[in-house]
Amino acid sequence: MIPAPFLLYLGHSSDSVGIKTSRGLATFRPEDCVGEFRSIDCPLTLGLPRLTMEAAVLAGARTMVVGISNAGGTMNAEVIIDAAAALEAGMNVAAGLHQRLRDIPELVEIAVRRGLLLIDVRDPPGNLEVGNGRPRAGHRLLTVGTDCSVGKMYASLALVSAMQKRGIVADFRATGQTGMLIAGEGIPLDAVIADFISGAIERLAPSRYDDGWDVIEGQGSLFHPSFAGVSTGLLHGAQPEAIVLCHDPARAEMRGLPGRALPSLDRCLTANLDVARLTSPHVRAVGICLNTSTFSEPAAHDQCARTADSLGLPCTDPFRFGVDSILDYMSCIEPSQRVTSASS
Protein backbone atom coordinates (compact mmCIF):
# COMPACT_ATOMS: atom_id res chain seq x y z
CA MET A 1 0.00 0.00 0.00
CA ILE A 2 1.20 3.50 -0.84
CA PRO A 3 1.50 5.78 2.20
CA ALA A 4 -1.35 8.29 2.22
CA PRO A 5 -2.31 11.14 2.11
CA PHE A 6 -1.36 12.03 -1.45
CA LEU A 7 -0.26 15.08 -3.42
CA LEU A 8 -1.54 14.54 -6.96
CA TYR A 9 0.89 15.51 -9.69
CA LEU A 10 -0.41 17.20 -12.84
CA GLY A 11 2.86 18.90 -13.78
CA HIS A 12 2.82 20.57 -17.17
CA SER A 13 -0.06 18.49 -18.55
CA SER A 14 -2.46 20.04 -21.02
CA ASP A 15 -4.28 16.85 -22.04
CA SER A 16 -7.25 16.20 -19.76
CA VAL A 17 -7.20 12.47 -20.57
CA GLY A 18 -3.49 12.33 -19.70
CA ILE A 19 -4.17 13.12 -16.02
CA LYS A 20 -6.65 10.27 -15.63
CA THR A 21 -4.65 8.64 -12.82
CA SER A 22 -4.70 11.78 -10.69
CA ARG A 23 -8.37 12.31 -11.54
CA GLY A 24 -9.22 8.73 -10.62
CA LEU A 25 -7.64 9.08 -7.19
CA ALA A 26 -9.35 12.44 -6.62
CA THR A 27 -12.69 10.86 -7.55
CA PHE A 28 -12.52 7.51 -5.78
CA ARG A 29 -10.15 8.24 -2.86
CA PRO A 30 -10.86 11.93 -2.13
CA GLU A 31 -10.24 11.50 1.59
CA ASP A 32 -6.60 10.62 0.81
CA CYS A 33 -5.88 13.58 -1.50
CA VAL A 34 -4.67 16.81 0.13
CA GLY A 35 -3.97 18.79 -3.01
CA GLU A 36 -2.56 18.99 -6.50
CA PHE A 37 0.78 20.12 -7.88
CA ARG A 38 0.61 21.83 -11.26
CA SER A 39 3.03 24.08 -13.05
CA ILE A 40 2.25 27.65 -14.07
CA ASP A 41 1.58 26.53 -17.66
CA CYS A 42 -0.84 23.74 -16.70
CA PRO A 43 -4.44 24.72 -17.59
CA LEU A 44 -5.97 21.71 -15.84
CA THR A 45 -7.22 21.27 -12.31
CA LEU A 46 -8.94 18.63 -10.22
CA GLY A 47 -10.51 21.25 -8.01
CA LEU A 48 -8.10 20.49 -5.16
CA PRO A 49 -5.90 23.03 -3.37
CA ARG A 50 -2.92 23.97 -5.51
CA LEU A 51 0.13 23.29 -3.32
CA THR A 52 3.88 23.59 -3.50
CA MET A 53 5.90 20.60 -2.41
CA GLU A 54 6.63 22.19 0.95
CA ALA A 55 3.01 23.21 1.49
CA ALA A 56 1.87 19.70 0.67
CA VAL A 57 4.11 18.24 3.36
CA LEU A 58 2.74 20.76 5.87
CA ALA A 59 -0.77 19.70 4.82
CA GLY A 60 0.11 16.10 5.68
CA ALA A 61 0.99 14.60 2.29
CA ARG A 62 3.22 11.56 2.60
CA THR A 63 3.42 10.57 -1.09
CA MET A 64 3.41 12.49 -4.35
CA VAL A 65 1.64 10.40 -6.98
CA VAL A 66 2.83 11.07 -10.52
CA GLY A 67 -0.72 10.71 -11.79
CA ILE A 68 -0.09 11.32 -15.48
CA SER A 69 0.10 9.01 -18.47
CA ASN A 70 1.41 9.22 -22.00
CA ALA A 71 2.16 6.93 -24.91
CA GLY A 72 5.11 4.79 -23.84
CA GLY A 73 4.80 5.78 -20.18
CA THR A 74 7.97 7.87 -19.94
CA MET A 75 9.11 10.70 -17.68
CA ASN A 76 10.63 13.81 -19.22
CA ALA A 77 13.21 16.02 -17.54
CA GLU A 78 10.56 18.24 -15.93
CA VAL A 79 8.83 15.30 -14.25
CA ILE A 80 12.15 14.02 -12.90
CA ILE A 81 13.05 17.47 -11.53
CA ASP A 82 9.64 17.72 -9.81
CA ALA A 83 9.95 14.20 -8.40
CA ALA A 84 13.35 15.12 -6.97
CA ALA A 85 11.83 18.22 -5.39
CA ALA A 86 9.08 16.12 -3.80
CA LEU A 87 11.69 13.81 -2.29
CA GLU A 88 13.76 16.71 -1.00
CA ALA A 89 10.62 18.15 0.60
CA GLY A 90 10.09 14.88 2.47
CA MET A 91 7.54 12.93 0.41
CA ASN A 92 7.70 9.45 -1.05
CA VAL A 93 7.09 9.33 -4.80
CA ALA A 94 4.84 6.83 -6.57
CA ALA A 95 4.33 6.39 -10.30
CA GLY A 96 2.61 3.94 -12.60
CA LEU A 97 4.59 4.66 -15.75
CA HIS A 98 6.56 2.14 -17.76
CA GLN A 99 9.75 4.06 -17.01
CA ARG A 100 10.61 3.12 -13.45
CA LEU A 101 11.47 5.61 -10.75
CA ARG A 102 14.07 3.17 -9.46
CA ASP A 103 15.92 3.37 -12.78
CA ILE A 104 16.61 7.10 -12.42
CA PRO A 105 19.89 7.42 -10.47
CA GLU A 106 19.33 10.93 -9.13
CA LEU A 107 15.98 9.94 -7.65
CA VAL A 108 17.44 6.81 -6.09
CA GLU A 109 20.24 8.85 -4.50
CA ILE A 110 17.82 11.32 -2.91
CA ALA A 111 15.43 8.61 -1.75
CA VAL A 112 18.24 6.68 -0.05
CA ARG A 113 19.67 9.81 1.51
CA ARG A 114 16.29 10.96 2.80
CA GLY A 115 15.04 7.50 3.80
CA LEU A 116 12.05 7.68 1.48
CA LEU A 117 10.31 5.31 -0.92
CA LEU A 118 10.22 5.17 -4.71
CA ILE A 119 7.11 3.16 -5.55
CA ASP A 120 6.73 1.76 -9.06
CA VAL A 121 3.15 0.57 -9.44
CA ARG A 122 3.55 -0.99 -12.89
CA ASP A 123 5.43 -4.05 -11.70
CA PRO A 124 3.75 -7.34 -12.63
CA PRO A 125 4.06 -10.30 -10.26
CA GLY A 126 6.70 -12.92 -10.89
CA ASN A 127 6.20 -16.54 -11.87
CA LEU A 128 3.22 -15.93 -14.13
CA GLU A 129 2.03 -18.86 -16.19
CA VAL A 130 0.65 -18.89 -19.70
CA GLY A 131 -3.12 -19.05 -19.93
CA ASN A 132 -4.80 -22.41 -20.42
CA GLY A 133 -8.34 -21.35 -21.30
CA ARG A 134 -9.92 -24.15 -19.29
CA PRO A 135 -13.43 -23.33 -17.98
CA ARG A 136 -13.35 -22.16 -14.38
CA ALA A 137 -16.06 -21.55 -11.82
CA GLY A 138 -17.43 -18.16 -10.96
CA HIS A 139 -19.10 -15.12 -12.47
CA ARG A 140 -16.89 -12.67 -14.35
CA LEU A 141 -17.78 -9.40 -16.05
CA LEU A 142 -15.29 -7.60 -18.28
CA THR A 143 -15.52 -4.00 -19.44
CA VAL A 144 -14.29 -3.42 -23.00
CA GLY A 145 -14.03 -0.28 -25.10
CA THR A 146 -14.13 1.33 -28.50
CA ASP A 147 -10.84 3.04 -27.56
CA CYS A 148 -8.46 3.40 -24.65
CA SER A 149 -9.37 5.85 -21.86
CA VAL A 150 -13.12 5.82 -22.48
CA GLY A 151 -14.27 4.93 -18.95
CA LYS A 152 -13.74 1.20 -18.47
CA MET A 153 -12.37 1.66 -14.95
CA TYR A 154 -15.17 4.04 -13.95
CA ALA A 155 -17.76 1.59 -15.28
CA SER A 156 -16.13 -1.34 -13.46
CA LEU A 157 -16.04 0.49 -10.13
CA ALA A 158 -19.63 1.67 -10.55
CA LEU A 159 -20.78 -1.88 -11.27
CA VAL A 160 -19.01 -3.27 -8.20
CA SER A 161 -20.47 -0.56 -5.96
CA ALA A 162 -23.99 -1.08 -7.28
CA MET A 163 -23.73 -4.85 -6.95
CA GLN A 164 -22.58 -4.57 -3.35
CA LYS A 165 -25.47 -2.22 -2.53
CA ARG A 166 -27.82 -4.96 -3.77
CA GLY A 167 -26.16 -7.49 -1.49
CA ILE A 168 -24.27 -9.18 -4.32
CA VAL A 169 -20.73 -10.28 -3.53
CA ALA A 170 -18.50 -8.44 -6.01
CA ASP A 171 -14.83 -7.56 -6.33
CA PHE A 172 -13.05 -5.06 -8.55
CA ARG A 173 -10.07 -6.56 -10.36
CA ALA A 174 -7.67 -3.79 -11.39
CA THR A 175 -5.54 -4.21 -14.51
CA GLY A 176 -4.05 -0.70 -14.90
CA GLN A 177 -2.09 1.80 -12.87
CA THR A 178 -5.05 3.99 -11.88
CA GLY A 179 -7.24 1.09 -10.85
CA MET A 180 -4.38 -0.40 -8.85
CA LEU A 181 -3.74 2.87 -7.03
CA ILE A 182 -7.43 3.07 -6.13
CA ALA A 183 -7.83 -0.58 -5.14
CA GLY A 184 -4.39 -1.08 -3.63
CA GLU A 185 -3.85 -4.26 -5.64
CA GLY A 186 -4.10 -5.76 -9.10
CA ILE A 187 -1.92 -6.67 -12.07
CA PRO A 188 -0.61 -3.99 -14.50
CA LEU A 189 -1.53 -5.88 -17.61
CA ASP A 190 0.30 -3.70 -20.12
CA ALA A 191 3.57 -4.45 -18.31
CA VAL A 192 3.13 -8.22 -18.61
CA ILE A 193 5.09 -10.11 -21.29
CA ALA A 194 2.66 -10.89 -24.11
CA ASP A 195 2.75 -14.68 -23.69
CA PHE A 196 1.55 -14.35 -20.09
CA ILE A 197 -1.30 -11.83 -20.45
CA SER A 198 -4.15 -14.34 -20.40
CA GLY A 199 -2.46 -16.32 -17.62
CA ALA A 200 -2.11 -13.15 -15.55
CA ILE A 201 -5.87 -12.58 -15.72
CA GLU A 202 -6.54 -16.20 -14.84
CA ARG A 203 -4.48 -15.57 -11.70
CA LEU A 204 -6.14 -12.22 -10.99
CA ALA A 205 -9.65 -13.69 -11.24
CA PRO A 206 -9.37 -17.41 -10.42
CA SER A 207 -12.22 -19.85 -9.84
CA ARG A 208 -14.68 -18.79 -7.16
CA TYR A 209 -17.56 -20.73 -5.61
CA ASP A 210 -19.42 -18.09 -3.56
CA ASP A 211 -21.79 -17.02 -6.38
CA GLY A 212 -19.96 -13.67 -6.37
CA TRP A 213 -18.70 -11.62 -9.28
CA ASP A 214 -15.26 -10.55 -10.39
CA VAL A 215 -15.62 -7.28 -12.30
CA ILE A 216 -12.47 -7.01 -14.40
CA GLU A 217 -11.20 -3.64 -15.58
CA GLY A 218 -10.68 -3.64 -19.34
CA GLN A 219 -7.68 -2.20 -21.18
CA GLY A 220 -7.23 -0.71 -24.63
CA SER A 221 -9.43 -1.69 -27.55
CA LEU A 222 -9.47 -4.40 -30.18
CA PHE A 223 -9.62 -1.57 -32.71
CA HIS A 224 -6.61 0.42 -31.45
CA PRO A 225 -3.49 -0.70 -33.36
CA SER A 226 -1.25 0.15 -30.41
CA PHE A 227 -3.13 -1.77 -27.73
CA ALA A 228 -5.25 -4.45 -29.39
CA GLY A 229 -2.84 -7.17 -28.27
CA VAL A 230 -3.44 -6.42 -24.59
CA SER A 231 -7.21 -6.33 -25.17
CA THR A 232 -7.14 -9.72 -26.89
CA GLY A 233 -5.20 -11.45 -24.12
CA LEU A 234 -7.50 -9.89 -21.55
CA LEU A 235 -10.62 -11.19 -23.30
CA HIS A 236 -9.20 -14.70 -23.39
CA GLY A 237 -7.91 -14.73 -19.82
CA ALA A 238 -10.98 -13.10 -18.29
CA GLN A 239 -13.27 -15.81 -19.66
CA PRO A 240 -16.16 -13.40 -19.09
CA GLU A 241 -19.75 -14.41 -18.65
CA ALA A 242 -20.79 -10.81 -19.33
CA ILE A 243 -19.32 -7.89 -21.28
CA VAL A 244 -20.08 -4.18 -20.92
CA LEU A 245 -18.97 -1.96 -23.80
CA CYS A 246 -17.63 1.51 -22.91
CA HIS A 247 -17.51 4.47 -25.30
CA ASP A 248 -16.95 8.21 -25.41
CA PRO A 249 -19.50 9.62 -27.90
CA ALA A 250 -17.65 12.94 -28.07
CA ARG A 251 -14.48 11.34 -29.41
CA ALA A 252 -14.05 11.38 -33.17
CA GLU A 253 -10.73 9.54 -33.51
CA MET A 254 -8.54 7.06 -31.69
CA ARG A 255 -6.53 8.46 -28.82
CA GLY A 256 -3.01 9.19 -30.06
CA LEU A 257 -3.83 8.27 -33.66
CA PRO A 258 -5.15 11.34 -35.49
CA GLY A 259 -7.25 10.48 -38.49
CA ARG A 260 -8.18 6.96 -37.37
CA ALA A 261 -11.90 6.82 -36.67
CA LEU A 262 -13.46 4.83 -33.86
CA PRO A 263 -15.44 1.71 -34.77
CA SER A 264 -19.20 1.69 -34.61
CA LEU A 265 -20.61 0.32 -31.38
CA ASP A 266 -22.24 -2.69 -32.99
CA ARG A 267 -19.07 -3.62 -34.86
CA CYS A 268 -16.97 -3.27 -31.71
CA LEU A 269 -19.40 -5.29 -29.62
CA THR A 270 -19.55 -8.08 -32.18
CA ALA A 271 -15.76 -8.27 -32.41
CA ASN A 272 -15.32 -8.45 -28.63
CA LEU A 273 -17.91 -11.19 -28.30
CA ASP A 274 -16.29 -13.17 -31.12
CA VAL A 275 -12.84 -12.97 -29.51
CA ALA A 276 -14.19 -13.78 -26.04
CA ARG A 277 -15.92 -16.95 -27.28
CA LEU A 278 -12.56 -18.72 -27.65
CA THR A 279 -12.59 -19.32 -23.88
CA SER A 280 -16.15 -18.33 -22.96
CA PRO A 281 -18.61 -19.71 -25.53
CA HIS A 282 -21.69 -18.42 -23.69
CA VAL A 283 -20.53 -14.83 -23.17
CA ARG A 284 -23.27 -12.19 -23.33
CA ALA A 285 -23.30 -8.44 -23.83
CA VAL A 286 -25.24 -6.92 -20.95
CA GLY A 287 -24.93 -3.17 -21.42
CA ILE A 288 -23.30 -0.04 -22.78
CA CYS A 289 -21.59 2.63 -20.68
CA LEU A 290 -21.06 6.08 -22.16
CA ASN A 291 -18.75 8.82 -20.93
CA THR A 292 -21.04 11.85 -21.35
CA SER A 293 -18.96 14.26 -19.27
CA THR A 294 -18.84 16.81 -22.11
CA PHE A 295 -22.62 16.71 -22.68
CA SER A 296 -25.42 18.55 -20.91
CA GLU A 297 -27.66 16.30 -18.83
CA PRO A 298 -30.54 16.30 -21.35
CA ALA A 299 -28.12 15.55 -24.19
CA ALA A 300 -26.53 12.78 -22.13
CA HIS A 301 -29.91 11.16 -21.48
CA ASP A 302 -30.67 11.42 -25.20
CA GLN A 303 -27.35 9.77 -26.14
CA CYS A 304 -28.03 6.89 -23.75
CA ALA A 305 -31.62 6.42 -24.95
CA ARG A 306 -30.68 6.42 -28.64
CA THR A 307 -27.81 4.00 -28.04
CA ALA A 308 -30.05 1.65 -26.06
CA ASP A 309 -32.66 1.68 -28.83
CA SER A 310 -30.02 1.06 -31.50
CA LEU A 311 -28.33 -1.90 -29.82
CA GLY A 312 -31.18 -3.37 -27.78
CA LEU A 313 -29.15 -3.18 -24.58
CA PRO A 314 -29.37 -0.95 -21.50
CA CYS A 315 -27.17 2.13 -21.87
CA THR A 316 -26.11 4.57 -19.18
CA ASP A 317 -23.41 6.91 -18.02
CA PRO A 318 -22.27 4.98 -14.93
CA PHE A 319 -20.85 8.02 -13.17
CA ARG A 320 -23.83 10.33 -13.79
CA PHE A 321 -26.78 7.97 -13.87
CA GLY A 322 -25.66 4.73 -12.20
CA VAL A 323 -25.81 1.20 -13.57
CA ASP A 324 -29.08 -0.14 -12.20
CA SER A 325 -30.44 -0.66 -15.72
CA ILE A 326 -27.53 -2.98 -16.52
CA LEU A 327 -27.89 -4.95 -13.29
CA ASP A 328 -31.64 -5.29 -13.87
CA TYR A 329 -30.94 -6.65 -17.34
CA MET A 330 -28.34 -9.09 -15.99
CA SER A 331 -30.81 -10.41 -13.42
CA CYS A 332 -33.10 -11.49 -16.26
CA ILE A 333 -30.50 -13.74 -17.90
CA GLU A 334 -31.45 -17.35 -17.45
CA PRO A 335 -29.10 -19.23 -15.10
CA SER A 336 -28.71 -21.92 -17.77
CA GLN A 337 -27.03 -19.33 -19.97
CA ARG A 338 -24.34 -18.60 -17.39
CA VAL A 339 -20.94 -20.26 -17.00
CA THR A 340 -21.08 -21.04 -13.28
CA SER A 341 -18.89 -24.06 -12.77
CA ALA A 342 -15.77 -25.67 -14.13
CA SER A 343 -17.95 -28.37 -15.69
CA SER A 344 -20.14 -25.91 -17.68
TrEMBL record:
Location of the D-glutamate N-acetyltransferase-like C-terminal domain: 130-327
SUPFAM superfamilies in the record: P-loop containing nucleoside triphosphate hydrolases
Transmembrane parts of this sequence: none
Pfam families according to UniProt: DUF1611, DUF1611_N
Name of the protein in question: DUF1611 domain-containing protein
Highest taxon listed in the record's lineage: Bacteria
PANTHER family: DUF1611 DOMAIN-CONTAINING PROTEIN, GLL3100 PROTEIN
Gene3D superfamilies: NAD(P)-binding Rossmann-like Domain, P-loop containing nucleotide triphosphate hydrolases
Domain D-glutamate N-acetyltransferase-like N-terminal: 53-124
Organism, scientific name: Allopontixanthobacter sediminis
